[in-house]
Specification:
The complex is a heterodimer of chains A (272) and B (298). Chain A has 272 residues and is an all-alpha fold. Chain A contains 15 helices and no strands. Chain A has one domain: Orthogonal Bundle (MetI-like fold). In chain A, helix 3 crosses helix 14 and helix 4 packs parallel to helix 8. Chain A is globular and about 75 Å long. Chain B is mainly alpha-helical and 298 residues long. Chain B has a single domain, classed as MetI-like (MetI-like fold, Orthogonal Bundle). Chain B has 12 helices and no strands. Chain B is globular. In chain B, 45% of the residues are buried. The chains are: A mainly alpha (272), B mainly alpha (298). At the A-B interface, helix 1, helix 4, helix 5, helix 6 and helix 9 of A face helix 1, helix 3, helix 4, helix 6 and helix 7 of B.
């Protein structure tokens, strides 16, 4: 079916217009990060005079980011790996109905989306259990097997042929070994999306650390950036560098994983 | 049937499922349910004080106390936020998905870019827009000057809330778009071919083929964005922290429970969470009914 030339051009114009709304703020961010404070004050919107990558070094030092970043790496890696594993442990038997009341359990897990905010009792519970202001406590609170990754796994595993389980079992493969050796390589596309979305959630979490980690030595980089903003409120070049530093790891991850995004969403958007 | 043997190995699935189930019960489902209980008590964050049941006092306090005007504005703001975000975010997400779904140079790049704010996260997105909307030297200030107007953006009592809505949509439009794209890609091509033979124009093929076929993605998108828009407050926390008439019900729950450290009022915060839940519940039921009916009809 041919598309008229006018309609093609209109399509490009609309998409490129939208693209500007997304690219310009990010370009502006980079532009500011390459300036000196004086250069910025003189002409905040002019293009930078020269590349100044050592601005990042200065921001890294002043923001004390080395103190925060290891916390972020620890929380994100542990909570993501644990959450993905638990999601798989939960999704596989439910998708295959290997446990009783599978549909009911699925419904039960998705219910938390609608239920009242657990904030207050959760906070109270965390304090009672001694999880408040501890690194493992925060990781435990960020770990779960019933989030977006779980939903995507269930949807995807349903499309994987059941005969595979039977053939593997026939050859003497056990349940755990099946999950690790056969299922994980099979669900790789949704797993990539699941890992990314889970990691994004933990790395970028600002409310969680604000609530649960009062001690600055436990705080992740989002808190560090927020404090940095309060401290250097008008030094925009420095702040822009800080912003870029904290997003860099996720953008790297994103570059590798983004091609799986739509297939992941396809699996995740099965009906509730 | 379960193929992985009998005896002990028959219980492996349940044994492994228990771990996520337990975490869910203890840290998500349980606390959610306990919110009901907390909302009828005078529990506070002060250690060593006794709690007792006080009936509907928290609800009364929430709606009829001295700061009633602000509380009611929070509720109004929550509804306004949800309405505008759901409507605009999904409309734009669908539009962009439909545009990009056809063959296009660089479509993978557009897709990746529109989704990028989700990757950047709330803190970074919020701070980037605080920079863009900085009333002293930000580029939006210069842009507004070009058109002969001015605004103090996030420090304006009238406009700040709409700028927050704008940033929220900017952030999540790509998410809706991705779900719509997944839906669009599952539509068989020959439907359009037969439509073409029957002489449909672009609008007709959207209205009678595309739109009905993506009904499931529309349901998912609507539900996720309604629930998300009502419950979210991190973007407000980063952009204005509730200043300049930008408080919502969800932010109030957080502030009552935690932010006002010295006067943390668990009961009041829980009552707020229950009122918020009521809205989520009502809207979810209405939309489920409307959208599901549409799915069945077709």
């Amino acid at each position: 079916m041919a598309e008229s030339r006018a309609s093609v051009s209109l399509r490009y114009v609309l998409v490129l217009l939208a693209l500007c709304v997304y690219v310009l703020p990010l370009f502006y961010l980079f532009n500011v990060s390459m300036k000196t404070q004086i250069e910025y004050l003189k002409a905040p919107n002019a293009i930078f005079e020269q590349l100044r990558f050592n601005n990042f070094g200065i921001a890294w030092e002043k923001g004390d980011f080395s103190r925060y970043i290891w916390n972020s790496v620890l929380y994100t890696s542990v909570a993501t790996v644990a959450s993905i594993l638990l999601s798989l442990f939960a999704a596989y038997p439910i998708a295959r109905r290997y446990v009783r009341f599978s549909n009911l359990i699925y419904l039960f897990f998705t219910m938390s989306l609608f239920l009242p905010s657990p904030l207050v009792p959760q906070f109270w519970l965390a304090s009672e259990l001694g999880l408040y202001n501890t690194q493992w406590g925060y990781i435990l609170l960020r770990t779960g097997g019933t989030g977006i990754a779980f939903l995507m796994f269930v949807g995807y595993i349903k499309s994987v042929s059941r005969e595979l389980d039977e053939a593997a079992a026939m050859d003497g493969c056990g349940y755990l070994r099946f999950i690790f050796r056969i299922l994980i390589p099979l669900v790789k596309p949704v797993m990539a999306t699941g890992v990314m979305l889970t990691a994004i959630g933990v790395w970028n979490d600002i409310i969680g650390p604000t609530i649960y980690l009062s001690d600055t030595k436990y705080q992740p980089i989002t808190r560090g950036l927020y404090a940095f903003f309060g401290q250097y409120l008008n030094n925009w070049p420095l702040l822009a560098c800080g912003i870029i530093i904290i997003t860099a790891p996720l953008i790297l991850l994103y570059v590798f994983i983004q091609r799986y995004l739509v297939s992941g969403a396809l699996a995740g958007s099965v009906k509730f | 049937m379960y193929p992985f043997g009998r005896g002990f190995s028959r219980h492996m699935p349940l044994a492994l499922l228990l771990l996520p189930l337990l975490l869910y019960l203890v840290f998500a489902f349980g606390p959610s349910m306990a919110t009901v209980f907390f909302s009828f008590t005078n529990a506070t964050g002060i250690p060593g004080t006794h709690w007792h049941f006080i009936g509907f006092d928290n609800y009364h306090k929430l709606l009829f106390s001295s700061d009633q005007a602000e509380r009611l504005r929070s509720i109004r703001n929550s509804l306004k936020f949800a309405f505008l975000v759901v409507l605009i975010q999904n409309a734009l997400g669908l539009l962009m998905a439909v545009l990009i779904n056809r063959k296009m140079k660089g479509d993978a790049f557009y897709r990746a870019t529109f989704f990028l704010p989700v990757v950047l996260g709330v803190t970074v997105t919020g701070l980037v827009w605080r920079m863009m909307l900085n009333p002293m030297s930000g580029p939006m200030t210069s842009l507004f000057k070009q058109f002969g107007t001015s605004s103090s953006f996030l420090s304006s009592y009238d406009a700040a809330f709409y700028w927050i809505i704008f940033v929220q949509i900017w952030m999540y439009m790509g998410y809706s778009m991705t779900i719509f794209l997944a839906g669009l890609q599952s539509i068989p091509k020959d439907l359009y071919d037969s439509g073409y033979i029957d002489g449909t124009n672009a609008w007709q093929s959207f209205r009678y083929i595309t739109f009905p076929m993506i009904a499931p993605s529309l349901t998912v998108n609507m539900l996720l964005s309604i629930i998300g828009a009502l419950q979210t407050f991190d973007i407000i926390y980063v952009l204005t922290n509730g200043g300049f008439n930008t408080r919502t019900l969800a932010l109030d729950v957080y502030r009552d429970a935690i932010a006002n450290n010295t006067t943390a009022d668990y009961g009041l915060a829980s009552a707020g969470a229950m009122v918020l839940f009521l809205f989520v519940f009502i809207f979810t039921i209405i939309f489920m009914y409307l959208l599901r009916r549409r799915e069945v009809d077709l």
